[in-house]
Amino acid sequence: MRQKLVAGNWKMHGSLAANQILLTALASQLERLNGMRSAVCVPFPYLAQAQTVLTGSCLAWGAQDVSQYEKGAYTGEVSASMLLEFGCRYVIVGHSERRALFGETDAVVAAKFAAALVAGLTPILCVGETLEERDAGRAESVIAQQLDAVVAESGMAGLAKSVIAYEPVWAIGTGKTASPAQAQAVHAFIRSKLAALDPDVAAALVIQYGGSVKAANAAELFAQPDIDGGLIGGASLDVDEFMAICHAAQG
Ligand code: PGA
């Protein structure tokens, strides 16, 4: 039985003062929830704060990106072992904003995924199609290609130690959620594609949905058989919204 994971993706939001209030409230309210897992992926400078506030709580934390390199002359980069030093459990890799705005290719994403695994972090691998790709009937082939790059590098044994987040690009930050049926169809595609390589790994793999998830639509999305929680952007910055989404994942 897969346990649902609700992870917040704060993106480039936050301040020391606002984070303190948000993290403290989430940590105390989440104590009363069981049967699901939760995490927040915060900007790099706030990892120390997350570690201080959340250590001992049931809210895990992580980062939103990681270097594919271990160490060296890579100005501006942050390595997986550095994230580990700040107690991170998760790291998002291949978010569509990184792919589209910062030129991350499938090969770079696969290398980052592998670097996260080597350090013992759990990568949250984002895959998803643009509206153009969906309209051209290419959603599945785009997602297959994104997955193939990672499987080629890390194998199904690597995938077994990760989380996948299906995030249709057209649903991110737009208020347009994929319908539960649309999302379920892609989740089922991802799981069956991976099942052809390793049925046990595919059956156990947590596949989150992301893209305008909020309190009002979380329950029906999470009720789908292949949707194992969510990667939450905007709504993760609001205590009541995030808590309601976590409640919806409780099952
Ligand atoms: P959103 O973002 O919930 O604000 O649409 C999701 C994401 O980008 O991970």
| Count of individual domains | 1
Shape from CA axes? globular
Q: Can you name the CATH architecture?
A: Alpha-Beta Barrel
State the order of secondary-structure elements, H for helix, E for strand: EHEHEHEHHEHHEHHEHEH
Residue share in β-strands: 15-25%
- Strand line-up in the sheet with most strands: 1-2-3-4-5-6-7-8
Find the count of extended strands (DSSP E, 2+ residues).
8
Task: Briefly note the structural class of the backbone.
Answer: alpha/beta
Task: Show the helix and strand layout.
Layout: E1 4-9, H1 16-30, E2 36-41, H2 47-54, E3 59-63, H3 80-85, E4 90-93, H4 96-101, H5 106-119, E5 122-127, H6 131-135, H7 139-159, E6 163-166, H8 180-195, H9 199-204, E7 206-210, H10 215-222, E8 229-232, H11 239-249
Parallel strand pairs: 1-2, 1-8, 2-3, 3-4, 4-5, 5-6, 6-7, 7-8
The structure holds 2-phosphoglycolic acid.
2-phosphoglycolic acid binds at residues 9, 167, 172-173, 210-213, 231-235.
